[in-house]
Amino acid sequence: MQPLLQVIDAECRYGEKLILESVSFDLQAGEIACLLGPSGCGKTTLLHAIAGFQPLARGSIALGGEPLSDNRRVMPPEQRKIGVVFQDYALFPHLTVEQNIGFGLRDLPRVERTARVGELLALVQLAQHAQQYPHQLSGGQQQRVALARALAPKPRLLLMDEPFSNLDTELRRSLATEVRHILREEGIAALIVTHDRSEAFAAGDKLGILANAHLQQWDTPQNLYRTPANAAVARIVSEGNLLRGKWISEGWVETALGRVAVSPAARLESGHIGKAVEVFARSEDLVPGEHANAVTVQVLSKSFLGNSALYAFRLPNGRKIEATLSTDYRFEPGNEVPLRLESPLVFSD
């Protein structure tokens, strides 16, 4: 089956400055994907290239098999049948909610336009606010108006640039789930830029991790979390501590937290004994308690989080690490406790 969106070997530059290099991925019809990565990694640049606001230095972009951009031509944004929701919503302040949503439908007969606006008002649960103006709405309500306006012409693809960044944390997560439901109802594929992994996990069927000008990995949220391609991906999709280590034998790595048994998926390749590795230890990989492979660490601090607590530990080599542990553990600053690693992520150095 031909993908809806194909990005092939895309490169973007601002003058001589390289922003993105060799970016390739596919998006299927009806699929929702998120681009996740740190500020300045090129997420918005890639979105702008797909929308037609940013030319490619090389590579190509196609929608439904139709070329949109390459290094010779750029189809104008208004001809791409792509909807865009901007970070600041870009609502028209002098138009009502109803008028904002119907703005892109002015060429339709009035009866059809009214029916479509009514459908979308119901879908985004704003029918009772139809005659209000943007300044009379909450941030979450404004975001839903912007979404409805972008969906009104039934675009083939919707692009959303940091759509929830102006909202508080709890509302961001709930709205990400709500937007996923709305897009499913409309059957429209979407690509969402975010720097918040909770949003990305809540909204995306696929996640693309951007860092160091490259698309590091394109996969399902579950696969990205369980089997990140490298340490850069691991640090973006989860909280954890990156430690230095060394292969000491088949299936075993030596770290500042002692000897660690490595999962079969990351076993030593022949001839690599003595080689340096990067060990990414998430909270669930850190286990307190007496064990042959445990080392003694000192508790530096403890922050109560409700059903868990954030601990800072000093390792024998002086390195500080953090872990969120169950409140069943009642360590206090100054305590010395045994701590070990179990099945962490291991990457070649």
From TrEMBL:
Q: GO CC terms for this protein?
A: ATP-binding cassette (ABC) transporter complex
What the entry lists under Pfam families is as follows: ABC_tran, TOBE_2
Give UniProt keywords alphabetically: ATP-binding, Cell membrane, Hydrolase, Ion transport, Iron, Iron transport, Membrane, Nucleotide-binding, Transport
EC no.? 3.6.3.30
Q: What class of enzyme is it?
A: hydrolase
Query: What is the residue range of the signal peptide feature?
Result: none
CDD domains from the xrefs? ABC_Carb_Solutes_like
- Give the highest taxon in the source lineage: Bacteria
- Molecular functions (GO terms): ABC-type ferric iron transporter activity; ATP binding; ATP hydrolysis activity
Q: Which GO terms describe its biological process?
A: quaternary ammonium group transport
InterPro entries assigned to the protein according to its UniProt record, in alphabetical order: AAA+_ATPase, ABC_SmlMolc_Importer, ABC_transporter-like_ATP-bd, ABC_transporter-like_CS, ABC_transpr_FbpC, Mo/tungstate-bd_C_term_dom, P-loop_NTPase, Transp-assoc_OB_typ2
User: For the ABC transporter domain, which residue ranges apply?
Assistant: 5-237
Its recorded name reads Fe(3+) ions import ATP-binding protein FbpC 2
